[in-house]
Specification:
Elements: H1 2-18, H2 24-43, E1 50-54, H3 56-65, H4 68-73, E2 76-81, E3 93-98, H5 102-110, E4 123-127, H6 133-139, H7 143-146, E5 149-154, E6 160-163, E7 166-168, H8 174-180, H9 185-199, E8 211-216, H10 223-242, E9 254-260, H11 275-282, E10 285-286, E11 289-295, E12 301-307, H12 313-318, H13 323-340, H14 355-363, H15 369-391, H16 394-406, H17 417-429, H18 435-448, E13 449-450, H19 453-460, H20 465-472, E14 491-492, H21 496-507, H22 519-529, E15 537-542, H23 558-565, H24 575-580, E16 583-589, E17 592-593, H25 594-606, E18 611-616, E19 619-620, H26 622-630, H27 635-644
Parallel strand pairs: 1-2, 1-3, 3-4, 4-5, 7-18, 8-9, 9-16, 16-18, 17-19
Antiparallel strand pairs: 6-7, 8-15, 10-11, 11-12, 13-14
Helix pairs in contact: 1-2, 8-9, 9-10, 11-15, 13-15, 14-15, 16-17, 16-18, 22-25
Length: 647
């Protein structure tokens, strides 16, 4: 009866979740509630309450998916940090939700070192991923711990979800390690860890049976292949364990596209002009926390911090919008709210509202402080972002970047590489660029063009010695800035199709600094058509006879999708629709940029009937990416390490 009740509750949760459209983060929440907490209730009906112990990683997993009130409702009275000294509760049942690392396993066992003074009573262990045999062997030699062990399971949920359908591993070290230490022990260990974490995304889709794994070929670095094959093996093991479970006889197909960062080394360096990407590039935002100024009812200005999450309706609505659209939209919504509110009808002129005027109105509406502070927060962030944009003369820089990336100017006319190099030289000569912006611009030039030696030296002489050294490390991403090009001209690395697509984009857009198209958009279009260039991609299938087709997709209109993503209901859409829609997972080893996440959201909105998930070893802003390249070792260091490398 208990099991039936839990299944019924879970079905209700799934129904409510489906009414809002697919969300990987919501699925993670449901897995913790059902596969961990509800399962414990069913197995231990006489245990009313638990303490939950989490490590640094699982703290972030829990905080991004569940609220404390939800844990309390499931009988979790307290959330304790494994790394800290904790008050003993020797009679309490305790859940350890931890990563399967040596440090976390050792700390857990330390809680039961003294059999007469255990920190807790009975123990229920849930691991984010599979436990290596060496660590399992260590556990078998901990009799005090084993005497209290009741539950030991691998939950297989080993990633962070900062957005509804975007995930990452918080692995900034992946970019320098995977590329500049390829084939060395550090890279092999890290690549296996990346694959193991990526594989745990699949159980969070609940129903899975037909899976097509695609990876890009790279003759210099086969990390995508290594990760793909290990993911394939892990998913097959999941399916073997899942055979006895109740499941949909014909679940929707899943495609996992695994790319290494060298497939498009350019996009993460470019300035982007959409709200989220621009804010994370130009403002100081750490793990989604931003500092801003707020004015209270007395007119006092103080610094506050805010978390930019999808629970903020304005952020969720405008983060993928162009900065100009976001500014207009937030201002219009604020004006509409004030105009339609009974207490503010005395406010006559609502046109041309700036931040100061908004703050004055907020001071006169104390009963709406929380709501109004959201408006001022976003107007403040947009204003700060645009201030940086103007102060750093990014409009001029952006035009040069777009010419480099696309080969066309803002009128859609082809621009010669010689002219672009001259534009860079002129910009440098003005002396207004900081070291960071100089490096970024020359980095883009080195990626987009094969410079003749004379021009390369002329441009790079503007850089600090350590930044000149950074450019040589581009070789690990398939770019050789020191390659000597014969002839008088400069060789472009762009294909004609890139310029043609950029021209088409320019015709259909009012924002001329957005004509660059990330390569991921082209990959996504190949995925939806199931047409891959076999010289560039390889495939793995589960089962082997599966051909990778997406089948007959449920016809959901773009309007229905938009309604669902705003949290509304959509006529003709139900849980069955979601279960029948193919899931497309795009994962970039070395990190995914905010621009690429946005491109995938736009792709999803224009391809009704599929759910798209964006992922990477980390989420990159431009300086994260540049620092990752800086952290790469040199080719000479690599040669030295390789001679000493051991398995």
């Amino acid at each position: 009866e208990k099991a039936k009740s839990t299944d019924s509750t879970f079905s209700n949760m799934m129904s409510k979740s489906a009414s809002k459209g697919f969300s990987l983060r919501e699925n993670c929440r449901l897995r913790i509630l059902k596969d961990m907490l509800s399962a414990l209730k069913d197995a231990n009906p006489n245990v009313p309450n638990y303490i939950m112990v989490v490590d640094d990683v699982t703290t972030r997993i829990i905080s991004s998916t569940l609220k404390m009130i939800e844990l309390l409702e499931e009988g979790v009275l307290a959330l304790e940090k494994l790394e800290l000294v904790r008050k003993p509760f020797p009679k309490m049942h305790t859940i350890y939700f931890i990563t399967p690392t040596e440090a976390s396993i050792e700390r857990m066992c330390e809680d039961f070192k003294d059999p007469k003074k255990p920190t807790y009573g009975n123990v229920h262990v849930y691991l984010t991923n599979h436990l290596e045999q060496a660590l399992m062997d260590k556990l078998t030699k901990k009799p005090n711990f084993l005497a209290r062990l009741v539950t030991f399971k691998e939950l297989n949920l080993d990633f962070l979800c900062p957005e509804e359908s975007a995930f990452h591993f918080d692995m900034p070290q992946a970019l320098p390690t995977v590329f500049s230490k390829y084939g060395l022990k550090d890279e092999r260990i890290l690549s296996d860890l990346i694959a193991d974490k990526l594989a745990t995304v699949v159980p969070c889709l609940f129903d899975y049976k037909y899976i097509h794994i695609v990876y890009n070929k790279n003759e210099n670095n086969s990390v995508a292949e290594t990760v793909a094959k290990r993911v394939h093996a892990r998913i097959e093991k999941f399916l073997q364990l899942k055979k006895d479970d109740d499941e949909d006889d014909n679940p929707a197909p899943i495609k996992i596209i695994i790319l290494d960062r060298s497939f498009d080394p350019l996009t993460p360096t470019l300035h982007d002009y959409y709200y989220q990407a621009m804010a994370f590039d130009l403002l100081k935002i750490d793990k989604g926390i931003v500092e801003y100024e707020s004015t209270d009812n007395a007119g006092n200005t103080t610094k506050k911090k805010a978390m930019l999450t999808d629970s903020d309706d304005l952020w969720n609505k405008y983060k993928y919008k162009h900065i100009a659209e976001a500014m207009q939209g937030v201002g219009d919504e604020f004006s509409h709210f004030v105009e339609t509110n009974q207490t503010t009808r005395a406010q006559k002129d609502m046109s041309n509202l700036d931040l100061k005027a908004m703050s004055e109105i907020v001071k006169n509406m104390p009963m709406y402080n929380e709501l109004m502070s959201k408006y001022t927060l976003h107007m403040n962030l947009i204003e700060q972002t645009l201030k940086e944009f103007t102060g750093k003369e990014i409009k001029e820089l952006g035009e040069i970047e777009q010419c480099l990336a696309t080969g066309i100017d803002n009128q859609g006319k082809s621009v010669s590489n010689q002219k672009v190099v001259s534009m860079i030289a002129q910009k440098m000569a003005m002396g207004k660029l900081g070291n960071e912006e100089k490096l970024r611009l020359i980095l883009i030039a080195c990626i987009a063009l094969e410079l003749v030696e004379k021009d390369r030296k002329a441009l790079t002489q503007n850089l600090q010695p350590e930044d000149q050294a950074l450019l040589t490390k581009l070789v690990w991403l398939g770019v050789n800035p020191q390659k000597i090009t014969s002839g008088k001209g400069k060789t472009s690395k762009r294909s004609e199709s890139i310029s043609d697509k950029a021209k088409g984009r320019l015709k259909n857009m009012s924002f001329d600094l957005c004509r660059h198209i990330p390569q991921l958009e082209n990959v996504a279009n190949e995925v939806i058509a199931n047409k891959f260039d076999k010289t560039q991609y390889e495939s793995l299938f589960i089962p082997k006879k599966y051909d990778g087709s997406l089948g007959q997709r449920t016809k959901i209109t773009a309007g229905q999708i938009a309604s669902l993503r705003k949290g509304g209901a959509s006529k003709g859409y139900d849980a069955a629709d979601e279960k029948s829609r193919p899931k497309l997972i795009f994962f970039i080893i070395g990190g995914i940029s905010y621009a690429e996440i946005r491109v995938l959201r736009e792709f999803e909105n224009s391809n009704a009937g599929v759910d798209v998930i964006a992922g990477g070893t980390s989420i990159l802003n431009p300086m994260d990416y540049i620092e990752g390249i800086r952290s790469m070792i040199s080719t000479s260091e690599y040669t030295d390490l390789k001679s000493k490398d051991t398995l």
